Amino acid sequence: MPVLKFERILVAIADPAAGMNKAIRRASALARNSGASIELFNAIPSSMSPGRVHSAAEQFTRFAVAQNRQLLERTANRLRREELMVSSNVQTGYPVHAAILRQVRISKADLLIIEARKHSVFARLLLTQTDFELIRHCPVPLLIVKGQAAWRSPLILAALDPFHSNDKPSALDGEIVAAAGTVAGLVRGSVHAAHIYLPLDSYVADLPMAPVALAGVPAQEKALRQNVRRRFYDDLGRYGILRKRGHLVGGDPAVELPRLTRSLRAGLIVMGAVSRSGLKRIFIGNTAERVLDSLKCDVLVVKP
Asked: How far apart, in Å, are the Cα atoms of 84 and each of 112, 247, 259?
């Protein structure tokens, strides 16, 4: 199974006063066994106000920078006592995701870690606009921490696409498996693979002649299922993943993928960000947003 290498881990922290949050704990777990260094980073939005308001805002920003740097150093010292290589950094910038991406490039990080935060009266762990901008533009793997429990030999689910739909390049599945294998090796996890495919009747039901067309679906559905199984298990063999660790499910990915992670009690799912060639940029669609917000485990997003 291919692997990646994590040498420099950047942890973007929204609230330095929170201390040892889940993202920092994930970073320490990975760094402890990889020998990677950790940088704790906090981005403060810079002031855009004119005149006296701008002057007062700048003074407040300088105070916030000094205070947050002190808080990050307090957390960094706790990690240093565990013999980890840790630095801390506070910078201003607007928007926040741009400041984080700039620091990814400056520090030459090969992994960025952020923590999903609770929103709404139901206290759901939802992703913010900043999170989605990082998913779109981050040039290195992005670990989004959503799970509560510590990683203890976690089941790691690699979400594969044997048919490379939505303009996904064929190399992307290899990157997904490599990332899953790297994390599994560092935290004594096991790698499983999944593919969620849409049954044929979900397409036919929207056609004008749906009742007539559905009559011929069973045989075509069986052929589709056999073709998907063959391609999926060929990929498992290519990547060295046992067949019994492969999970093939028909249905809506936004529903079935979160359901599968819950049934398997997965600690981490590794997914690929989709590059739409026509737009020449990373595109996060409604389905991907629904999947990411519905997942309760950690998510590692990779690009080819």
From this structure: 17, 37, 36
Count of other CB atoms within 10 angstroms of residue 253:
20
Does residue 238 sit in the same domain as residue 169? yes
Q: What is the DSSP secondary structure assignment for residue 139, as one 8-state letter?
A: S
Contact predicate 13/72, CB 8 Å? yes
Task: Note the pTM of the prediction, 2 decimals.
Answer: 0.86
pLDDT in tens, 44-88: 887 554 544 456 667 778 888 999 999 999 999 999 999 999 999
Residues 209 and 86 reside in one and the same domain: no
State the amino acid at position 213 in one-letter form. A
Domain with 134 in it: what CATH number?
A: 3.40.50.620
Between the alpha carbon of residue 256 and those of residues 196, 208, 291, the distances in Å are 7, 27, 9
Domain count, the chain: 2
Do residue 69 and residue 7 come from a single domain?
yes
CA-atom Rg of the chain in angstroms: 22
Structure tokens belonging to residue 285: 């669609």
Q: Which two tokens stand for residue 71?
A: 């808080």
